[in-house]
């Protein structure tokens, strides 16, 4: 990019890393104190696992933040040539974050399972990841929204200048906030969910599992969730190559390309998981439980798209309500937001119920496998999510 673009990108990078470093300083103090308490109350192995979970979660957020903040100017430059080029560069940076989160997640769980051989100790790893997620998601989210609202209030309301206008100094804080909340914060949050689902399935499998009249070996029941997660990573990597567009592509084509990657990864994971489960344990009921979670995850994504896309009626109804003033806008927005929770709730309840009954008498193991299935596409979906703030920053730099 131009010298000015590199200057703006560097400013955003320094601001984001300054926030992250300050946040991590607080996290380290908390993590050390919490680990010391765990060592005294539970055991030193759990404390070590806790520190490992905190480290891997922080590392994933740090790597993702660095890549995202280094890619915004490149994305803006690529978009000058074509929208498709901009998508390729922006999505590639998001893919680094997505694969980093799932890769470090399964790597950390595998390392501590190899070291200790007891999934109950690895619960500490999930606890450590949750602790970092609390700081990163909540702290980053507060910063993100405060910077966003502050920039809009100063720019749009007081100075009457457009969004992302370079004359508004708060725009830099807004762009920093996009990375803090939607890259590092979201990455830590989903890292915790990802490793939590795997560890839960491993712990339940460690107690002994019988599904469909077949008694699973303890090692098989413990290792299977990690193998399913590994299959998900591999299929997500393959699916990133589906996110391509032809020359002259428009906005709708870009959206279709992203959906192609998400749906492609889900199909690949479903097929690969069937063969893995069939040849590894030979119990097809476990596959149906995993598929229930996978389908529920796709339905939740489609529901979110329906309620937030401007080409669908929910957003259009809010826009129409805005014509009569802010009061009707708020009421309409709240009602649509509340209604949007219905499909995700039904999808989760349906997946839990189906997975439980299909894997009786050990229905809890089925629910845990369904959770692993729901998050098996995380590498691809997180890549798509991270592409958002990168593109947003690129638009701000271009402005």
Automatic annotation (TrEMBL):
Keyword Lyase assigned: no
Gene Ontology molecular function: diphosphate hydrolysis-driven proton transmembrane transporter activity; inorganic diphosphate phosphatase activity
Cellular-component GO terms for this entry: endomembrane system; membrane
Segments passing through the bilayer: 24-42, 48-68, 89-115, 121-139, 194-216, 222-242, 262-281, 287-308, 329-358, 364-383
Keyword DNA-binding on entry: no
Record membrane topology: Multi-pass membrane protein
Localization terms from the record: Endomembrane system
Protein keywords: Ion transport, Magnesium, Membrane, Translocase, Transmembrane, Transmembrane helix, Transport
InterPro entries assigned to the protein according to its UniProt record, in alphabetical order: PPase-energised_H-pump
Name by which UniProt lists this protein: Sodium-translocating pyrophosphatase
Organism: marine sediment metagenome
Phylogenetic placement of the source organism: unclassified sequences, metagenomes, ecological metagenomes
